Amino acid sequence: MNALKRIALLAALVASAAWAQGNLEINTPAISQIKSGMQARHAQLAPHYASGAVGLGADGAVALRDASAVPLAQRQAVQGLVAQENADRAALYREIARANGHPEWEADIRNTFAQRWIERAQPGWYVQSGGQWSRK
Amino acid sequence: MNRPLYALLIAAAMLSGCVTINIYFPAAAAEKAADRIIDEVWQLKKEQGAKPEGNQP
């Protein structure tokens, strides 16, 4: 009886460890909404990644790194896009942490995303590491 | 007569084990989640099979 209990407890521990390493919850209405906003905005941001005007920061945000690559008339619009994108990204990291019951994970999630955005950036886009911008 | 003490110790050990597991940041899972979201936001297809799903130990 006691041995059975111990085995059951052990099984529960292993299962919870496996669960912790399995998947993060990312299918909540809040996350989906943020994601679709970012997806729609990406079409507008993509040319600016390509021109080098906007780069992927080491902090999981995007930055207007070379305003002169944007025609003067469009600069304000691009600044607005960058600000909106960063607000969405911040909300995304916060929501993922919250959806998984660990608001304190927000910074870790931001760091993970920062690495993945940079890792998966297209050739020619600018990415930041150690405060320096480089072209992929 | 020491039984309750043992039980308490074991329960404490189990509980702290659980807490340790649950507050540990799941880096691999977070990477997978990030990749899935980046796929959607940047509308990338899954052309690189570098990260096969479902082969977690």
Shape of chain B: rod-shaped
Tell me the β content of chain A: 5-15%
Count of extended strands of chain A: 4
Order of SSEs of chain A, N→C? HHEEHHEE
Low-confidence stretches of chain A: none
Please tell me how large the radius of gyration of chain B is: 20 Å
From the spread of the alpha carbons, the general shape of chain A counts as elongated
- Based on secondary structure, the structural category of chain A is alpha+beta
Number of helices of chain B: 2
Average pLDDT of chain B, rounded to a whole number, is 74
Question: Which oligomeric state applies?
Answer: heterodimer
Distance between the termini of chain B: 42 Å
Number of distinct helices of chain A: 4
Provide the helix percentage of chain B: 55-70%
Unreliable sequence segments of chain B: 47-57
Q: Which strands sit side by side, in order, in the main sheet of chain A?
A: 2-1-3-4
Query: What is the terminal separation of chain A in angstroms?
Result: 61 Å
The biggest sheet of chain B amounts to: none
Q: What's the helix-strand series of chain B?
A: HH
Overview of the structural elements:
The complex is a heterodimer of chains A (136) and B (57). A four-stranded mixed β-sheet of chain A has the order 2-1-3-4. The mean pLDDT of chain A is 91. The longest helix of chain A is centred in the middle third of the chain and has 28 residues, at 72-99. Chain A is α+β, with helices and mostly antiparallel strands. Chain A has one domain. Chain A has helices spanning 2-22, 29-51, 72-99, 106-119, and strands at 54-56, 62-64, 126-129, 132-135. Chain A is built from four helices and four strands, in the order ααββααββ. With 57 residues, chain B is mainly α. Chain B is built from two helices and no strands. Chain B has helices at 3-23, 27-41. At the A-B interface, α1, α2 and α4 of A face α1 and α2 of B.
